[in-house]
Amino acid sequence: MERKLSMIDSDKIEFIPVDSLQKIFMKKDPLMCKKLQKIEGFLHWGYNYYNSQYSIRKIGPYRVTDADDAFPSGDSFLVYPGEDGNAVESLRLLVLEEGFEDCRALKLLEQYKGKKYVHNLVNQIAGMNITFEKYPVESEFFENLRARINKELDEI
Questions:
Q1: Residue closest to 27 by CA, chosen among 147, 153, 151, 126
Q2: 79 - beta bridge partners?
Q3: How far is CA 9 from CA 44, 96, 109, in A?
Q4: Which of 43, 72, 73, 74 minimizes the number of CB atoms within 10 Å of its CB?
Q5: Is-contact 143 99, C-beta < 8 A?
Q6: pLDDT for the residue numbered 101
Q7: Quick one: pLDDT at residue 86?
């Protein structure tokens, strides 16, 4: 059975396979497709789910990162438990934060240049029309895009 994650679209609920989203998340940019596909919201279901699938048993998140092979590694939590009881940020959380920052920069540029301009700019730098099935995965794309967005914002 294929696991699916629902995301809200402007007109309806779309179901997008977890594996497609996992590729986007792990390649830094959970929000690029949000911006281009006009998705109204974003949900990461697992902040600190330190259990096997269906909560049958507790897992040690430092040793078991996939809820006993139930989900892509790291998908069930954004933080690790710290010795002092405070949350310890995961790399996934830090990368997610970068994605939110990128989204804010895209929205700011859109205020000045328009949605179509930003959409075309992203696709131009990507060298393709970005979809959930087809998107750049190289870190250079994200670095180049952010540098270009920053340059354009500096010129305003």
A1: 126
A2: 89
A3: 16, 20, 22
A4: 43
A5: no
A6: 87
A7: 92
